[in-house]
UniProtKB/TrEMBL annotation:
Cited InterPro entries: IMPase, Inositol_monoP_metal-BS, Inositol_monophosphatase-like, Inositol_monophosphatase_CS
Record bears the keyword Repeat: no
Biological process annotations from GO: inositol metabolic process; phosphatidylinositol phosphate biosynthetic process; signal transduction
GO function terms (MF aspect): inositol monophosphate 1-phosphatase activity; metal ion binding
Enzyme Commission identifier(s): 3.1.3.25
Reported cofactor(s): Mg(2+)
Source superkingdom: Eukaryota
Keyword Transmembrane helix: no
Protein name, UniProt field: Inositol-1-monophosphatase
Family stated for the protein in its record: Belongs to the inositol monophosphatase superfamily.
Biological pathway: Polyol metabolism; myo-inositol biosynthesis; myo-inositol from D-glucose 6-phosphate: step 2/2
Length: 285
C-alpha cells in the first residue's frame, strides 16, 4: 500500500515540488507580486503567485502520487479556526483511507515576497499515519534546500545539519513571529518586551518555515510564535527535530511535535525552557 512507500520517493517529490514553486517565485515580475486581495485583514496578503505555486506543488505531487491527499493554505478559508478544522478533517480522511497527507505552504512569507525582502520559501511536508515523515523548505533566493526524513536526519544542500546550542540564554539569538492576528500580536509584543533584555538579540524576519530551517542549522537558537497553522510548521518542525532540536508546544511541554499545535517553540535543545519561562513571567500564559 501507499504506507509502505520508500521515504526517498516522498522526499524526492517534496524537493521537486518546492523547486517548481521556488522557480515561479524568482521568475515573478514586480506586477505579479502585487497584492491581489487581503485575507483576514490588511496585514494578511495574497498575490497572484501564491495560488499558482500551490497549484504547481499539487500538480507535481499528484503526477507522482495520484491518490495522495493534499492540504494547502490557499485552498482553505483564512483564519485560525478554518485552518485547524481543515487540518483535522484532512488528518481524519488520511487515517480512514490510509493515504498519505501532504501539507503545503506555497509561499511562506508572502509579505516579504510582496516587499522584495528576500526571505520567503515554499514548505512541503508529507504525513503518514498522522506523523510528518518528510519535509522540505526551499529558499529560492539563497538557493538553500532544507530537508529532513523521519529518523534519517536533517540536511541543508545535501550536508547533514545540527542545532548549535549556546552556553546560556544571554548568548542565544531568538527569532519570533510578528503575526497578523490581533491577539497573537499582543502576545508577541509582551514576549518581545520580556525577552529582549535577557537574550543576545531578537529577529523577526517573516517566514516561520525558513526560521525553523535556521534553528536546525544553528543560525538561530530558538523560534517561537503564538499562532501558526500546520502548513507553516509541518516541514520545518521535522527539520528541527531531525537536526537534534526540539519542536514543542509553547504552553505545554509536549514531548513530540504535533502539526496541530498552533503555539510553537523550536529550539536548539537547550534554551527553549528558559525562553518559555521568560514568556510565562511576561504574562503570555
Ligand atoms: C506567515 C509567515 C510569518 C508568520 C505568520 C504566517 P504566510 O505565513 O510564516 O512569518 O509570522 O504568522 O502566517 O502567510 O506568509 O504564508
Ligand atoms: Ca498567508
Ligand atoms: Ca505560512
Ligand atoms: Ca503562505
Amino acid at each position: 500500500t501507499s504506507l509502505n512507500l520508500a521515504p526517498s520517493s516522498l522526499l524526492e517529490t517534496a524537493i521537486r515540488s518546492a523547486y517548481v514553486a521556488g522557480n515561479l517565485m524568482t521568475s515573478a515580475t514586480a506586477s505579479d507580486k502585487g497584492v491581489e486581495v487581503t485575507k483576514l485583514n490588511k496585514k494578511d496578503l495574497l498575490t497572484k503567485i501564491d495560488p499558482l505555486c500551490e497549484e504547481a506543488i499539487k500538480k507535481t505531487i499528484l503526477a507522482r502520487f495520484p491518490d495522495h491527499l493534499i492540504l494547502g493554505e490557499e485552498s482553505v478559508e483564512p483564519g485560525p479556526s478554518a485552518s485547524s478544522m481543515a487540518l483535522s478533517s484532512f488528518l481524519e480522511k488520511s487515517r480512514a483511507t490510509k493515504k498519505p497527507l501532504w501539507i503545503i505552504d506555497p509561499i511562506d512569507g508572502t509579505t516579504n515576497f510582496v516587499h522584495d525582502l528576500r526571505y520567503s520559501a515554499p514548505s512541503v511536508a508529507c504525513c503518514v499515519n498522522g506523523e510528518v515523515v518528510v519535509g522540505c523548505v526551499f529558499d529560492p533566493y539563497a538557493n538553500e534546500t532544507f530537508w529532513a526524513v523521519k529518523n534519517e536526519g536533517a540536511f541543508l544542500n545535501g550536508e547533514r545539519i545540527s542545532v548549535k546550542p549556546e552556553a546560556c540564554l544571554e548568548d542565544s539569538v531568538i527569532a519570533m513571529g510578528a503575526p497578523p492576528g490581533k491577539l497573537s500580536a499582543s502576545k508577541s509584543i509582551k514576549g518581545f518586551e520580556g525577552l529582549l533584555p535577557k537574550v543576545r538579540t531578537i529577529r523577526m524576519l517573516g517566514s516561520a518555515a525558513l526560521m525553523l530551517g535556521w534553528v536546525a542549522c544553528g543560525r538561530l537558537n530558538c523560534y517561537w510564535e503564538w499562532d501558526l497553522s500546520s502548513w507553516d510548521v509541518a516541514a520545518g518542525g521535522l527539520i528541527v527535530e531531525e537536526a537534534g532540536g526540539r519542536m514543542r508546544g509553547l504552553e505545554e511541554d509536549t514531548l513530540k511535535f504535533d502539526v496541530s499545535e498552533r503555539k510553537i517553540i523550536a529550539d536548539d535543545g537547550k534554551c527553549g525552557n528558559d525562553v518559555r519561562e521568560v514568556l510565562k513571567e511576561s504574562g503570555l500564559f
